Amino acid sequence: MIMQATSQKEPAQAFAGKTAIVTGAGQGIGFEICRQLASAGATVLLNDVDGPLAEAAAQRITPDGRCIACPGDSSNRDFIRSIVARAIAETGKLDIVIANAGITLFGDFLDYTEEAFYRVMNVNLGGTFFLAQEAARQLIKQGTGGSLLFTSSVTGHQAHRNLAAYGMSKAAVEMLARHLVLELSPHRVNVNAIAPGATLTERTAADAHYEQTWSAITPMGRPGTAADIARAALFLVSDAARHITGQTLIIDGGWSVVSPTP
């Protein structure tokens, strides 16, 4: 039997010709998202508030410059405008924006400070909102559609001690994704969120008991990896997911179904 040729791109080049911005990507989940996007042919603007970390991360991914370091505070409006402008200056367009940057400031509700509260909201919620706004303006101007993706958390679904403000901010970005369906669908821009559960990263590796603890209480028998989360993220910003919008994909090995406290 003769197989018919198709126009579908091979997975290795699924993002060829695409331009993506990923915030909070110097290490961990954001870094792996950038690495996978670049490996699949995209030009990636890798942001992190830590300048040297951003530069080193971009060099690790593509020394030829297809991954571009963009150090800066992703919650700052001027920086948000500048990174979108740089994407246009470097490649002439923008296709994908992943608002991954976020901070976690633990604290008991009764003692939580105003300073900590507004810092979490400014980075996690404000940074996501205004990056989405600036990116959407550019995508609408281009008239070619595109994808926005927000990084939420299982703590936006299940209460976790000492994370009231953080969980609140993550639930809010999921609602933002749902609301933007109304605003951006007419422009062929889809908006989704991912909600990672316990994930092995450089940050969580500092806890010597992290992997053992979460392996014991996760139905799939292990915490997630950055690669697990990145693969889900790439699907949601790929052409294969163009008709998916306003959704949150929980990636936690089943933990949120049973929710035992670590």
Commentary on this structure:
The structure is a single chain. It is built from eight helices and nine strands. It is α/β, with parallel strands linked by helices and 262 residues long. α2 links the parallel β2 and β3. It is globular, with a radius of gyration of 18 Å. The model is unreliable at 1-10 (pLDDT under 50).
Question: Nutshell version of this structure?
Answer:
With 262 residues, the chain is α/β, with parallel strands linked by helices. The chain contains eight helices and nine strands.
Spatial shape: globular
- What gap, in angstroms, lies between the N and C termini? 55 Å
CATH homologous superfamily designation: NAD(P)-binding Rossmann-like Domain
Content-based structural category: alpha/beta
| Secondary-structure element series | EHEHEHEHEHEEHEHEH
Task: Please report the total strand number as a whole number.
Answer: 9
Our Rg estimate from Cα atoms comes to: 18 Å
Indicate the mean pLDDT: 93
How much helix, percentage-wise, in residues? 40-55%
CATH class category label:
Alpha Beta
Low-confidence runs: 1-10
The structural domain count equals 1
Strand order of the largest sheet: 3-2-1-4-5-6-9
**Biggest β-sheet, characterized?**
7 strands, parallel
Instruction: Tell me what portion of residues adopts beta-strand conformation.
Output: 15-25%
